[in-house]
Fold each of these.
Amino acid sequence: MEAILLTIVLSPLIGSALAGLACMRVSRAWAHWVTIIGVGISCALSLYVLKLYALDGQAIYNHPVYTWMVSDGLRFEIGFLIDNLTAMMMAVVTFVSLMVHIYTIGYMHDEEIGYQRFFSYIALFTFSMLMLVMSNNFMQLFFGWEAVGLVSYLLIGFYFKRESAIFANMKAFLVNRVGDFGFVLGIAAVAMYMNSLDYAEVFARAPALKDAQVNILGGVSWSLMSVIGILLFIGAMGKSAQVPLHVWLPDSMEGPTPISALIHAATMVTAGIFMVARMSPLYELSETALSFILVIGATTAFFMGLIGIVQNDIKRVIAYSTLSQLGYMVVALGVSAYAAGVFHLMTHAFFKALLFLAAGSVIVGMHHEQDIRKMGGIRKHMPITYWVSLAGTLALIGFPGFSGFFSKDAIIGAVHHSEIAGSSYAYVMVVLGVFVTALYSFRLLFLVFHGDGPRDGHAREHIHESPWVITLPLILLAIPSVLIGWMTMEPTLFGDFFKQAIHVAPEHDVLAELGHSYHGQWGFILHGMMEWPFVLAMAGLLTAWVVYLLKPEWSERIKNAMLPLYKLLDRKYGFDEFNQIVFAGGSRLIGRLLWIFGDRKLIDGLIINGSAKSVALLAGVARHVQTGYLYHYAIAMILGLLGLLTWFVYF
Amino acid sequence: MMADWPILSTTIWLPIIGGLLVLGSGDKSPNVSRWLALAFAVLTFLVSIPLWTAFDSGTAAMQFEEKAAWIPDWNIFYHLGVDGIAMPLILLTSFITILVIIAGWTVIQKRPSQYMAAFLIMEGVMIGVFASLDAMLFYVFWEAMLIPMFLIIGVWGGPNRVYATIKFFLYTFFGSVFMLIALIYMYTQSGSFEILDFHALKLPLNAQLLIFIAFLLAFAVKVPMWPVHTWLPDAHVEAPTGGSVILAAIMLKIGGYGFLRFSLPIAPDASHALDWLIILLSLIAVVYIGFVALVQADMKKLIAYSSISHMGFVTLGLFIVFRIAANADAPGGAVLGMEGAMAQMVSHGFISAAMFLCVGVVYDRMHSRLIADYGGVVNTMPVFAAFMVFFAMANAGLPGTSGFVGEFMVILAAFRADFWYAFLAATTLIIGAAYTLWMVKRVIFGDVANENVAKLTDLNGREYLVLGLLAAAVLALGLWPQPLIEVMDASITHLVQQISVSKL
């Protein structure tokens, strides 16, 4: 088993090294073949491992690979924990990664420099992400956590000549570091109170600390588990782009489209979801932390979706959609429906990767045009892209039967049953979010594929369907986007697929409640079609159809009627401006003040050079005494003698 | 046979003799001096390797000891020996010196033999500092260290080198005078200059406090700690690349080493009483200096400030031990903090050296250290850019690089002392990344900024070799720090036990 796992992890790394280290000296074909073979091996073996766990009931594998360090009795290890949750994540990561690798051959075809570099990076990403999900301890989790952040940084800044790209990648890294700041403190808290970094040991020791209190700010007691839970979740807020640490994700669209699909939709951004699900034994011990998660997730789910309606860049619409969908997953975690969150993570990985790659196909077809107002009517020119996009969109809005329907309805149902603080707010947000999702999704679909098409007839002539290396991954992703929900809902949500990996306290078990009324997929679909979310989704679809296809002139009128709202959304609620002025500007100001007044004026000016000057001054005074004239010395001696005499006589 | 061979003396005197030979070779044929210097540097490194391979990591006792009478009337001995704290630093010194010699190969055209000689002599003297077990011998090496560094900056430095050298000299000299007084006081109390005798010396709190402060003045300047740090940016800016590397990679470590060898074991009660001060200054170093680094326009200054900020982790890791011991909730952690401090010292030796060398690489081509003069270097120097981004990430403490190890350990340990220590220390994750990556963005990325950048040529073989070796070291330590932690574990554990017993 260990040999299999090591092969899964190392083959993408070796591929990355072979493609990357020799960088410009290797041919393009070599670069994509070594990485595809590496990731392909990894994917095949991951599917094999998934089969072992899902079908053959393999026992949990939990073993160290090597000891990184032992200090003060605390063991830091590198090791693997494989259970159903990990096996599922491995399969999703390597499969989507493999699709993206193949797709990239077509997408990056015209790229003159950086082709090899790109393949090297995405293979390295696959390695890092696998290390993250396969970890059996907190330190390696953080390793993977930061390593995927690094690759994300490198890939967002892939077009390093573009100012906006290198700004976006720095922003992404720094915002993620804000999350990591909380994450590290959370790990430190775990290491202190559980005296271990190993998952199994920590989870075993946690229940005993359920009622432990800690003092952080004079006198006020906090529940230890809440502190740990919230600190760790701050890390997830960075990586999974939850409000207010979401600001980096839309900007990350500066990176090439394949990585938007792989990193910024399907895998890396879901690391936070995975982490919380993995830590379910800890989170179950703190309702405060769960409520915090719930409210953050619900806010992200609805308000980020709204922004998606006003975006005009094809990739940014999908990016805001990703934010919103991540919010749904986080909501699921908040109501202890971890399995539903992870289930949505999986369905989303397929249909969102599909949507991004389809968008990339459109972008290539449109000669790197990304503004959806300049598109339209390309359904006829790019039929495959159109049909897979439609499948992805239907999955995204949760159309009954498509994969997203099962996962999203499960989340909404779970929130409905939850009694945790904040669940009624969350319920309203996620239900309204369904309308918003349908609206922006079909707005995108209609504007891009339907209608009259670009006014520029010349451009239209050159639009053509993408080559097979692009369409093949699209089709391969469309299949699970449609079917995976139907196929896997029962065991993941209501069965015992995640039983050993995810721990839910009986009083929080909303999925079990949901399961009472579950009678097969057909029942679930029929039931779903009688509920509000379905009505709202159809309403959203209809609204998009009316406003963007039937009466296009209305969209401008609606915009003008609701101008303040439009402006608020267009400026993304002002998060960017706020951060730019307060945090970026504030830090520079503090730095400059400390430097000029602290270092230069006070320490150097006053103390250091000041003491040098005072020495010089004293020396200057003393110099005047030593004139070299004999009579000056004589008089000094006489005065001295007089002084001494006076002393002796009078005292 | 191995045990009889005076390895420590050899590692000290071999480079010094080599330095004198190089000096004697003159500047008529620079290549002779260069190869001679390299030969001695490599030889010294090879000689120092047995210190590690033959080291017994099971004991905290001094190893490879050598003792000979030096000034018998005053009980001063030529006494050398290393434990798990000194040994890694000696290896670091002999490793970095090789890189410095190679890095200065053709760059230094002015008096190359003297330049090479200065670094070799510097190496011997610094190893002497780490290996001395006699306080007088330590002091002699300590002060001797100033001379080559003074010359390196003063002769091969930048335009404002005179101010920088004087500032450097006075600052450090000011500190060490008080240390001398403390050493002499302890001699009067114990009748010996043996450092290990000082450890055993029972001193009242008042005496401990005065001794602690005297040492603090010496070591705080070297580390450097806020607010006696302002000599460092000036010295770095004026120093030639090699000087900066030695300064950042080794000399700063001598301050941290001083705390471990003198302050903590000799004055444990005073250390305990004044630990709040050191913790406070360390946190100021991490946060305040981080912000200052953010606004620097000069790359070398930025890295210098970054050094100070990173060294804050060293002093923090060393002095949180008492708070951790006092915290009933914490399951140990004092050793973790101290080992973190040591790991941070070694790691900073690699990373700061690499960062200064990276600046040196572009400075040699462009003769500017100003960030504003650069932009888009990746277009013309892709290999260099890869190295620079890698070392920048290491500087920002990315896991998998050595920069992560020490910071992570110290944050974990600081959390056990007080939540807020860890909170403030962890801000380096954000600030450290901000100043490093912002510099990378402005220097490395972007479109070619001007003609000078367009004319840049990528790394030559020597530069590739030097940066490649450092990258390997940074990765090795980051992926598997256990060998390093293992050799120091017994000594650090012993030290923690030692200081947890009051001398009063």
Amino acid sequence: MMDLAVIGAGPAGMAAAIAVADAGFSVLVVDEQARAGGQIFRRPSQEWGQRHGNYRPYSWAKDLIERFEDHPGITTAFRSTAFGVLRDPDDHAPLRLALHTPEGGRLVAARRLLIATGAHDMPVAFPGWTLPGVMTAGAVQSLLKSQKLLMGRRLVLAGSHPILLILAEQLLEARADIAEIALARGLPNFAEMIGAVPALPGHVTLFADAFRAMGKIIARGIPVTRRTIIDGVEGTTEVTGVRLAEVDEGWMRTGKPRHVAADLLVLGYGFNPSTELARQAGCRMQWASDLGGWVVAHDQTFQTSVEGIFVAGEPTGIAGAERSWAEGQMAGLGIAASLGVAADPTQRRRAGCILARAGRFSRVIQTMFEPKREALARLSGAEDVIVCRCELIRSGALDAALRKNPFLSTASAVKLECRTGMGPCQGRYCEGTVAARLATTRGATIPESGFFNANFPVKPVPLQSLCDLERSQEEHIPANTPATYPAASR
Amino acid sequence: MTEARRMTATRGPAVTFHFEGQPVTGYCGETLATALLAAQVSAFGLTREGTPRLPFCNMGTCFDCVVTVDGQRLVRACLTEARDGLCVTRHEAT
């Protein structure tokens, strides 16, 4: 049995794993990727000869990754999917985590779990969004950073999140041909910039990077249009063009759409916390639109409403890598304390400082760039627009289901009625649209629509992996023994 | 077709696998998604309406890049490394 199993090897997961392993406990860290770092620090394969990638502007990243990878008390399971938490609410048996690994299914018993599952790009449904040639900013960026693959001949970037500017700069460095960058909002105004000042200490490089990116984009003569939103893409089997439209302050269309020739549309409207495992485990969720929507509720030690299950990083609210790193440290100290080793006060204070500082910064960014969800959901309004990409449920079918069942009032009920969210992605890419459309139709708010329930298994896995769980349960791993190695120097 | 091009970089040794019966060359350390995109494959899979899909999220959450690998269905190409001798076919939804 492990003392702690961490799901996600990003900044939060790595920081927590180090803190708990430093206290002498056994830690297993699971991640779907081949290497540690999370989406933010995706790097090329080890086989390409470089240990590190470019982590700018996060000065602490290299040290964090090295301490994590070199830690003797941390076991890792990469290329592995955590697809469910098994627990018996009535007894104090350890939590069990179901894994699909390259060797098959495996059930891991752990005294504590940390959900550090990160975030994914927020999907937006509009005419043609399922066509080859439409990709998320995260997809284009990770292919560029970790695979050295440049997508598209002529690109349009559309969104509202600052990541689009950073990505645009990286694309220009790779000699991409960017036709236009369409931002749904205006640039931050003077009052907002002043408001951001208290958040600056420690984050000068981040701001500097965004400004530097903007400077380069302008110097290259790339058109950056404001108050402009995606209206649809053209093409039958692939993207041949993009339609952009002017919007007002509320992101509602004011003008007629115009055509831009392009073969790749990159979307960057923000991020959603990845919370399906927390939902499946029964952790209480709460709504915070400026933090990315549904986030996992937790106490000061980062324990969720379920005893023994902790959370850190983006699932507590989208707040960036720095904040995730800080939350990971705090959660790690909390977990160690719950296992019987109290953190030394200096360490605790230091983590607290980073947490507060990172929090100030991210609050400013989030308020500035919060997406207008109802307006985005309207982009899927036309009858033949696909709402659920997996099950091919169209807008017209969704409307018909809502009309036919006037008492349907939750997103989960809509899912049962018309299969939106029933496919392989398990609703990650239609929940936002369904909830916003339901709210608009019923004259309610988005949080009143609730969220899609997540059931075991939270991701599709081969039946064989489920069968393997039974056998794997019999493996006996000795319970925690005191530390057999010196705690890493601090 | 959505163009994809490999940038200059040090990569691992070349590997060859089959996609829909055709040989595809990739490099050790690339994912199946990268190798197939670089080979300008126009569809990783077909929906039950017969429409093509390519990777959308490249981080394992959207399942639009799924393919069949050595008979195993719903394998995410973006999370699977390209290896010699793999037999990869399009995902065909039913």
Amino acid sequence: MSPDEVFALLKGIMVREFKLTEDEIQPGASFEELDLDSIDAVDLAVSVEEKIGFKFDTDDLGHLRTVQDAVDLICARRPKASG
Amino acid sequence: MSATVERWLRIAGTGAAFALFGAASLVVGLLAAPALALVSGDRDRRERRVQRLVHLSFRAFVRFVEAAGVIAVSVRGAERLPDGGPCLVIANHPTLLDYVLVVAHLPQADVVVKRSHWSNPFTGGVVRGAGYVPNDTGEATLEACVARLRAGRTVLLFPEGTRSPRGRLGRFQRGAAHVALAAGVPAVPVTISCEPPGLMRGQPWYDVPERRMQFTLDVDEPIPTPPRPESRGRASRQLTAEYREHFAKRLGLPDA
């Protein structure tokens, strides 16, 4: 999966789960600006796992600040072949 | 009696109330709660007993502060407050005294409070003994509240998470709605108002208002929780907006 595809996936989940609009979700937008709390972070992680099988470490979740951070982490950790 | 003398008496009464509260917290936290723990067997029983002791202490404390002329309290709809059974109580948080005033009417309550109370020498013993829930652990806080409700206990939560800004409502965090949704229980709203305003965030204790503070607690019909939502992210946002709207309306504030 390319970074663009991962971003689109996250965007889709966030629009559906958190009532956000597509315009609000820019790569540089922070989760704080988007008003996502720690429970939302867990829900987002669960949805990502359901869709592409990527599992976040609980420690990782606390360190992600922006949507781009999440994209980078997923792309860096995910084996290229399985995309 | 002149207004100045009356005000100084209320300042003295307020100081006495703070001193009494501190001393009583130490007695309950360091002596009574550990003593109850020794004779209470399991954890559920122990925590319920400590909570009951806190409730009775607060009732006595509120009577003292009323008698000292510092505050007057009126409660409307008190019969809607639970005296047992799974129940989520939510309240706005205009003053320092809110937790005390609500718990004075709840014989059993698990309260979600700030983490700093665990390391505070005055409150540490009480929050530990009563098994209160720290508010800073996200999913774990949520699970702890749901577990208490499933065990048939009453949980008290301040959705703002801290005291309100002067004359307004703070931002509502979604924890209360998450708890209601996960446990499938409605939320009983308690609207607290104080006139003239006092004991607000950032205000020193001796800065007492010109007149005696009149507290009003309005307990309303439970706000229903929708059953098993598809997305808890969406449902918690919707429900949180409903909670906030209820309090805004009750306080006569323009919403938002």
Amino acid sequence: MSTATAPTRDSAGRLSALAGSSSIFSKSLRDSRRAIAIAIAFVAFVLLVGAAAVASAFGTVETRQQMVGLATTLPAIFQSMLGPPVALDRLGGLIEWRYQIVLGVLLPVWSILALSGTLAGEADRGSLELLATTAITRRRLALEKLAGHLVSVLIVLAAIALVTWLCGIAFGTLPGDAISPEAAFGYAALTGVLMLAPGGVAFAAAPFLGRGAAAGLAAFVMVASYLVNGFHDSIALFDTMRPLSWYQWTAQHIPLAGRFDWGSIATLATLGVVLLAVGVGAFERRDVGRTIRLPAPHLPGFLLGLREPLGRTLAERLRASTVWGVAIGLYVLVVASTASSLADVLHKVPTLEQMMRFLYPDIDYTSVGGVLQLVFLQFGLIVFGFTAATAVAGWASEESSGRLEVLLSAPMSRVAWFLRSGLGTFLAIAFSAGVVSLATAIGAAGQGSDAGQPARGAFVLALYGLAWAGVGLGVGGLVRSSLAAPTVIVLTVGSFLIELFATALKLPDWVAGLALASHYGRPLVGVWDPVGIVVSLVLAFGGLAVGAWGMTRRDVRG
Amino acid sequence: MTAVIQTEELTKSYGEHRGIIDVDLTVNEGEVFGFLGPNGAGKTTTIRTLLDLIRPTSGRALVFGIASNADPVAIHRRIGYIPGEFTLYDRLTGGQTIQYFANLRGGVDREYQASLIERFDIDPKRRYKELSKGNKQKIGLVIALQHQPELLILDEPTSGLDPLVQQSFFELVREARDGGRTVFLSSHILSEVERTCDRVAIIREGRLVKVASVEGLRDLAHHQVELRFSGEVSAAEFASLPGVSDVSAQDHILRMRVSGPITPVVRAAARYELLDFVSREPTLEETFLAQYGHGHAAAAADAGTTPAGSAS
């Protein structure tokens, strides 16, 4: 009789296991390498360039005092959205006040996508069944997957703390500009719990709803939480709901301004952990890959687009386009509903009214169109860029799923397929803009304002989305369809960052001009810049034509 | 005979990865042509090149006399195709999916379409996403067959189908041939290929290694010989004979493959007390495995024996 000896693993073996694919945890961590690198690059870019911009624009005591004066006279709605203006005479206070929204809303998207898909995505692919039938328990499987993502987040948070601390050293110009390690750590902790909470919602919901619905639910909860906190001063219902918003819980934790509220961080962290535990428990108890089917209206037969690829592409994208349109439209309605209260505030503070007239002489900022132009458009364009990316990703799935191979075996040329499916994608994007336009009209009418002008102006979103979608389709046709959606995302985020930093960094005009959004004029108040319209249409249809040409020259991927 | 498919030194390389190399192939009108090879041998690459889904690095492919990359639409108008792996529209029902592709082609006989749905026992009202792998495959088959094309190009068409549906499918293939149409199919169901195909090509590591009729392919190959003796014999003695390979021994039985004349084996066996002598032609499967050098291992595994030793 022989005795089985358990294999032992030396320290080098353990290290290679951690870096390699010998456990679910290490595989998850390994799969996150690219996401970690992108997140660190994005965070470093935003913080370093943001700090440089702040140091450049507010390098003297006088400019800082002017900023303090301006911020404290801002209407409550702006103060709620940006957070309370604390210690704006210090570099850290300015960075957090100006850029927290970027990290606090965009980074959680990574957690939502990762934690909604870490198990449910494997279930969709069918690989979860193989994993679940290995000699490990389901609980351990879920915990290792979870640990992979949490360690990835911790790596990014460490980078945030380090870069934040370095910002104080590199860009501090006045006394008090140094950022202490405790403040940097506190800032990373805040970002971490703001990622953990929506990620936890996604992870807890995924075993019940599946990947897509769980991600959608988590995104909805996060945005709702943000809006409830940001607009509680203007909307009575939101004021009532405010205690439910985790952005409100952590509103007094402003570490870069020297204000700490560790209790709120601990509370939000506890919520996140509870949600993650719910997710692990649900995964352990429920049938693998079985989800609750949410009731969704079926499209009538004539809307299924069964005649040819243009209609089929539009029909396939219609559901996502509607969801995006309704979500952005709801945000428009919220902003529109604040128009009258904003006007009241401005009338009560004559100096502020004078300043607004000076800064925006051609905008009636008391009208719904004016408020949307000031408060909504910049954010709306970046979100609509993601809408376009979703539509383009759907288009790209025709090839990546192998469907295109069957389609092209029909008597239809590649150019014909490309043009028709591309136009179908454009129509889906325009449909989302149409929904937003409808919401704009409703919001304006509800406030007794002119509905037509802002409703027409909302189609600027379609122009913006079509432009980047056209470039994405061009790259997809020329090189590889899987590159199309990432191209749209890179262009959207890149354009947003240029717009965000170009003026503050006093970059040359041609660099600032690369931001497509700066070429539309003020469409929500009826002032259009033809340059933006022409450039958008050229990018959209030029990209479509280039992509169709490129498609004839390359192999179809199977 | 008219060549429906003709390739001339058809080559496709994927950078460092091998695709296909100098493939010369002719498929004639009205024949069922089997295309065999293990995973990764180049079957799908060849098929995708014929359809202009990928472009040859060198050489050319002609379908109906038309260069595949000159006028692919003209070719596609006359073919039906099912890829080895595919996904269709999750939210459409099976019936809607079939209808969409019928609309793309035009001119589909609704009665024939309905008969295919019935023969494959498809529930056209279920969503594609909810179908099993085999039922999804059936949808793909109807899409390929419904317009009664002159040429069917089928890449692993029976993948995921249960035996009864496989039988229905091969019946349809035979009907297509009887109707004068041409079928080019890759498959791993070698027994069905043997029963259905007129000619077979074997591709290995991107190169065509054999093209012959099914009968011809078997004639060219070895015989499987089994000798039963009353006592011990030396397996090594038989293994050294010309044309003999893969000798295995179990009890007093020797099994071997013999290529070419069988006379040396008969003479050697005559020196012992021989109780039984069985010689049979190999199946297509055995031929196929022999082409890949797996014959020995497979035969040994089947017989539960160890290779070449002495019969004791």
